[in-house]
What does this fold into?
Amino acid sequence: MDKKIKSAQHKKLVAVENIKALERFKQNFKPENVGEIPEVMEGLEQHRQDFFAAVAKLEEYDDTSDAIQACITGRIDMEERCRRLKSFLRENQRKEANSLNDSLLANSTLAFGRPNTSNIRFPKIELPTFDGDSTKWLSFRDRFVAMIDASAELPPIAKLQYLLSSLKGDAAVPFEHVTLTTENYSVTWAALLKRYDNSRMLIREYWRRLHFLPAIATESVDGLTSLVDEFVRYVNGLQKLHEPVDSWDTPLSNMLLMKLDNETILAWERHSVHKKRISTAS
It folds into this structure.
């Protein structure tokens, strides 16, 4: 039993020393250390869990009243220390986020081409978002490059902040632990390009989406509008990828026709029966 107690006491001591190191980080904190906050918060939670796990073992191995009282006092003290430290970290992380937002507003030459206008309050820019849907990648990429990446006014750490805040869902998962540092912007953007900016993969995905668009079962204005909007979106994506869609009138028209309900197909046939096909032969 003594060995088990000593082992638990050692684990408790290690956790306490690690938390003391984080408290020294708080005491010596400078604005340039803000990029380390996510890792510090992650470490704080881990060391906190290690501490309470060790205390639970000590309570199990020694249930005398003095030992239990010492464990209770230790729990209360550690909980308060961790709460103060976490509050400090969150507050400074929030200040940095607000600072980056102010930077974007003050440097809104992105949208207005007005240098040296730091005293003018421009409207907040609505940044694009990307959730991992590859058929939405091209639109996100072009908008983000124009609004953020190409800006000479924004520092890399601000660009990284806006890039990470723009990623949602599956697209955000690989980058959820990226630290806010200057050098991480180019690394993260390059990783995102490598993952999604693949024209061959995008072309295949656009074609797959076209083939598997759900057909309309019954005549419906809303259903037809939704179908056509999605169909046009995928075709425009293929066109942006330099596929010769202008010469695919027949296969694309027939592909769309097969998605329509019987009443709409009949109306289309009545409308188009008198239309003459334009020959492209020379």
